């Protein structure tokens, strides 16, 4: 049994679909505190340069989801769920013009889940 590190709500998938129709292929990067706190940010593929300091946590609704390696060390015991709320964030994320913003809801993995986690 493999445990996923990241999930997405149905409401967030609707916004992802709208953004994908407008912008093409997308990916997410969990911000480490710059600009809009520690918010998940949505970008067009190729818009943000990733490197060996970024880790891929998984794929949600056909979008890869990344986080910086340093931040991952703090969050590695946490399951993340991408959701969306009304309101305008102050980031460069693609959903901002729609009057919504992506947010992360988190919880600690259970002991059983932690044992079943795959490698990053």
Which key terms come to mind for this protein?
four-stranded mixed β-sheet; 37% strand; 120 residues; globular; 22% helix; 3 helices; three-stranded mixed β-sheet; alpha/beta
Describe the structure.
The model has no long low-confidence stretch (mean pLDDT 91). The strands form two sheets. A four-stranded mixed beta sheet has the order 3-2-5-4. It has a three-stranded mixed beta sheet with strand order 1-6-7. The protein is an alpha/beta fold. The two termini are 16 Å apart. It has three helices and seven strands; from the N terminus they run E-H-E-E-E-E-H-E-E-H.
Quick recap:
The chain is of the alpha/beta class and 120 residues long.
Count of DSSP strands = 7
The largest sheet is: 4 strands, mixed
The number of helical elements comes to 3
Kindly, what is the distance between the CA atoms of the first and last residues, rounded to a whole number of angstroms?
16 Å
Uncertain ranges = none
Q: How is the largest sheet built, in terms of strand order?
A: 3-2-5-4
- Helicity, in percent? 10-25%
Radius of gyration of CA atoms, rounded to a whole number? 14 Å
Strand content: 35-45%
Structural category: alpha/beta
Mean pLDDT: 91
Helix-strand pattern: EHEEEEHEEH
* General shape: globular
């Amino acid at each position: 049994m493999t445990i996923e590190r990241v999930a997405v709500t149905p409401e967030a998938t609707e916004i992802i679909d709208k953004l994908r129709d407008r912008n093409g292929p997308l990916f997410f990067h969990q911000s480490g505190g710059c600009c809009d706190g520690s918010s998940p940010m949505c970008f067009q593929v190729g818009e943000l340069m990733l490197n060996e300091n970024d880790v891929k946590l998984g794929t949600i609704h056909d979008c890869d989801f990344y986080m910086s390696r340093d931040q991952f060390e703090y969050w590695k015991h946490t399951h993340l769920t991408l959701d969306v709320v009304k309101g305008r964030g102050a980031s460069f994320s693609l959903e901002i013009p729609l009057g919504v913003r992506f947010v992360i809801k988190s919880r600690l993995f259970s002991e059983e889940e932690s044992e079943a986690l795959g490698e990053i």
